[in-house]
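Data availability (excerpt). The following record was deposited with the supplementary files.
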Amino acid sequence: MLLAMMPRAFAEAALFPARDSNADAPVLVVYSSLDEPLARPMIEGFQAANPDVAVRYEEMLTGEVHDRIVHETDAGRKTADFAFSSAMDLQVKLSNDGYAQRSDLPMSEQWPQWANWRNTAYALTFEPAVFVYHKPSFKGRKPPASRAEFVAYLKSEGEAVYGRIGTYDIERSGVGFLFMARDQEQFGDIWTVIRAMGAAGVKLYSTSSAILERVADGRFVLGYNILGSYAADWASRNPNVGIVLPKDYTVVMSRIGLVPQAAASPELGRRYLAFFMSKEGQEILSRELQIAAVSPEVSGSNTARTMRALLGAQLKPVPVSPGLMVYLDQVKRARLIARWNDVLRMQ
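Predicted structure:
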């Protein structure tokens, strides 16, 4: 793969010196798709508990996290000590193909079964796919709260909302493709939804922020299947952004953490993973990163525990298992994308 051949300098890297000021401190190397400013509170929390460890944080695309680990391992070189990515399918593929090592940790037995694949790949976040809406556009009326209501709204509003609906481009957005694939599994009439969005002139984007920015300023009235963590962050800063967890079902994705088989310092990788899974680490995730925590030890509104208590079976987490690799099957992927494009073009 091309990404595997990219030189190390192309990755965005940030160095966090050890807090004990030891210039020769061991260095934990992290490959991650999470923006470094968002990751900073977790790194700082880890270093407060481990002042003798420096951290090199390399931010990269999800595909590059996978490709770098595979390429470096296959070349007989050492790789990251910890990998964290929102590409659930690629992370599980690393585990399934022998590029991740087992990490038996204090929280392993308590971790939800769906979120732990053989103690090698752990779901560390709980992020629903939501509807987002422009609150002033729904003054005096409720926004759609299910896919059937979403379709009915688009049909009833017609020209008034034409070109003012946004969702992910599933060809360019990995999370968009994951959500669409899960929709197809969960909802037999999903193509009615796609057809209605096509008729409403839906706009497609590869990033959450592009859609949320347009909802916030009123250019869009609705966004479909938007990653809830980003939506919550935007809503906290933009009072015009509203969020709905669809009541028919709500797909939940997770970012997965693992320790690569060829990690230079696997013990450091496990220390970081253990901190990520600890009560303190999960509280940092929930409170400071605004991403819902998985740990059953953590309470509060922004946690899987509370969401499950409120919504129960409405939530459909994507299990961390080899079943995820079906989304990497190029024939099935091409078939889904082709149908998606055909349905949208028909309108």
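Summary of structural features: The CA atoms of residues 155 and 278 lie 47 Å apart.
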